[in-house]
Amino acid sequence: MNSAKSPAKKSWLQTLIKNKNERKKVIFIFTISFLLVVAGLIYIPIYKHSLPLDSKIYEGNFKELGSIARIGFFAALAIYPIFLLLKWKPLSHIKKGNFELKPLIQFLAKYVRQWHVPIALISTAMIILHGYMALIKGFQANFTYFSGIITMAVLACLLVMGVKRYKRTDKKWHLKFAISFLVLFMIHATFS
Ligand code: HEM
Ligand code: HEM
Question: At residue 74, does pLDDT exceed 50?
């Protein structure tokens, strides 16, 4: 009889995110983001009639959501220049007295990597509510609405490729979508 224990079968998420703490953090933040979106999607229509949709307060609120998410997306994007800098050979030679630049960049890289996905998830939840609030205010066939919807579609592709990025099967599409997303949301927010 074969008494050797077969290794416990790993779940899809365990194979995707190998580090236990990172996995826990992503599950926790994903749940919070999901609940935030569900609460917003339920709450906003229920109180739609009492909300002053045309008021400056409503407009201010959904713009505020867009602005906060934009800061989050910039923080998520920071992973690119920081990782690039780490690969830059002359970095280890940059010193001023006792101060060395490389350990500082390594420190930043650690935190930017740890918080990349959680920040992206929370920002996405906020931007979904931003788009939703803009749409229920009343769709208008103008540049702002079209550019917002296109930016949102690119964000969806970026997130899918983000999941593939864990296993490095994204064929650089995560980066390509990230750059397109940056350009599009800048255009959308600047010319709205
Ligand atoms: C369904 C998708 C979207 C729709 C319908 C939409 C709609 C709008 C509208 C109507 C405005 C206000 C324009 C104005 O009157 O000044 C706006 C502003 C803005 N949107 Fe979107 N948007 C969408 C997606 C996005 C996405 C994906 C981002 C990504 C960051 C974004 C970021 C912003 C920002 C930063 C502003 C400027 C806020 C401010 O003035 O402070 N939006 N959007
Ligand atoms: C569900 C959301 C996301 C997931 C799961 C995800 C996942 C990842 C992973 C695993 C990496 C590689 C990190 C490493 O090399 O150790 C990465 C890198 C990167 N991510 Fe994301 N990401 C997400 C959202 C975003 C968003 C919203 C942006 C842009 C605003 C973004 C921009 C980038 C960039 C520029 C890089 C560096 C280039 C590259 O390695 O492809 N990501 N992401």
Answer: yes
Composition of the chain by helix, strand, coil, percent to 5: 75, 0, 20
**DSSP per residue, 135-159:** HHH----SHHHHHHHHHHHHHHHHH
CB of 163 sitting under 6 A from ligand 2: yes
CA 63/CA 189 separation, integer angstroms: 9
In contact, 29 and 126? CB cutoff 8 Å: no
Cα 33 to ligand 1 centre (Å): 19
Nearest CA among 73, 59, 36 for reference residue 177: 73
Distance 117 CA to ligand 2 centre (A): 7
Task: Say how many Å lie between the first and final Cα of the chain, rounded.
Answer: 71
Q: How far is the CA of 175 from the centre of ligand 2 (A)?
A: 7
Determine the pLDDT at residue 51: 62
pLDDT in tens, 123-138: 999 999 999 999 998 8
Instruction: Give strand ranges (E) for 30-147.
Output: 95-96, 99-100
Ligand closest in space to the Cα of 142: 1
Q: Where are the domains of the chain?
A: 21-38+54-138, 141-192
Rounded Cα distance between 33 and 130, Å, is 14
76-86 confidence digits (pLDDT tens): 999 999 999 99
